[in-house]
Write a structure and sequence with these properties.
15 strands; about 30% strand; seven-stranded mixed β-sheet; Metallo-beta-lactamase, Chain A; alpha/beta; globular
């Protein structure tokens, strides 16, 4: 990080369930206090970390917003490949109810591979493949070395529990919305945040390109935040920078998203893209 920066936020993946080469699955890396914190672990998260030259062993703190597949499908890669290439301490995972079940069943799914690598072949250490899971509802879920992570409940329709996170360090604060409709609880927890990274959908292009029944299409839209709603939220909170990520919509929907957001918000705004890095300190700078 550059001098004076308290936190570095890198968007590893800004996409949604469809497999795309330009927008990998949702995942965000935050570096603070000399440590790496990973929020969600979608498709390709490990590849993005390799592009950033982040050491496998440095990524052992994972926070999950909810258990939709596009937010967790990269966990086996992070967990297993990180162990094979140098992690000797447990992967610590924080998530809502169901996270313990997820990790224990991954251990069963990869039982043969773990046995071979631990007991018969390379003899990698058991500690490196252990997963320590902490489940939560809402509140401060992590506080070490000046870094505080607070979880707050959001509204992702029938998907419950679903949370967003606020990360505070050295007087700076970053809010990650997770997947949510317009959420008053998010607004309450995001007061005074320097940076807000918020999900968004593109309703018109989703409707125009969907091959699903209309009622299913509307359900998907109603589980997310429209551009106009995102802009209203940003206008109310007035962050030093607002970033749109987890773009729910087909390729080319960015214009609809930006135009809609600008109808209700005129402040500092960025359309997120994979490997965009934001340094949050005395100044906020965007690179990548």
């Amino acid at each position: 990080m550059t001098p004076g920066a308290s936190m570095r936020v890198t968007l590893l993946g800004t996409g949604s369930p469809p497999a795309r080469m330009d927008r990998f699955g949702p995942s965000t890396l935050i570096e603070a206090g000399g440590r790496c914190f990973l929020f969600d672990c979608g498709r390709g998260a490990l590849q993005r970390l390799v592009q950033l030259k982040v050491a496998y062993a440095d990524v052992n703190r994972l926070f999950l917003t909810h258990l939709h597949s596009d937010h967790v499908v990269g966990i086996p890669d992070l967990w297993l490949t990180g162990w094979i290439f140098g992690r000797t301490t447990p992967l610590r995972v924080w998530g809502p109810a169901g996270t313990e079940n997820l990790m224990r069943h991954l251990e069963l799914a990869y039982e043969a591979d773990i046995h071979i690598r631990r007991d018969l072949d390379e003899r990698f250490p058991q500690a490196g493949i252990d997963a320590i899971v902490s489940e939560f509802v809402e509140g401060v879920v992590y506080e070490e070395d000046g870094v505080r992570v607070t979880a707050f409940v959001v509204d992702h329709g029938p998907v419950a529990p679903a949370v967003g996170f606020r990360i505070d360090y050295e007087g700076r604060s970053v809010v990650l919305s997770g997947d949510t409709r317009y959420s008053t609880n998010l607004i309450e927890h995001a007061e005074g945040a320097d940076l807000i990274v918020h999900e968004v959908c593109a309703p018109e292009m989703i409707r125009a390109t969907s091959n699903r029944p209309p009622e299913t299409t509307e359900q998907i839209i109603n589980h997310h935040t429209t551009p106009e709603q995102a802009g209203t939220l940003f206008t109310q909170l007035q962050p030093r920078l607002a970033v749109l990520s987890h773009i729910v919509g087909p390729p080319g929907c960015e214009g609809e998203v930006l135009d809609g957001t600008r109808r209700t918000y005129q402040g500092p705004l960025e359309m997120g893209h994979d490997l965009m890095a934001i340094e949050v300190g005395d100044e906020i700078t965007v690179t990548g």
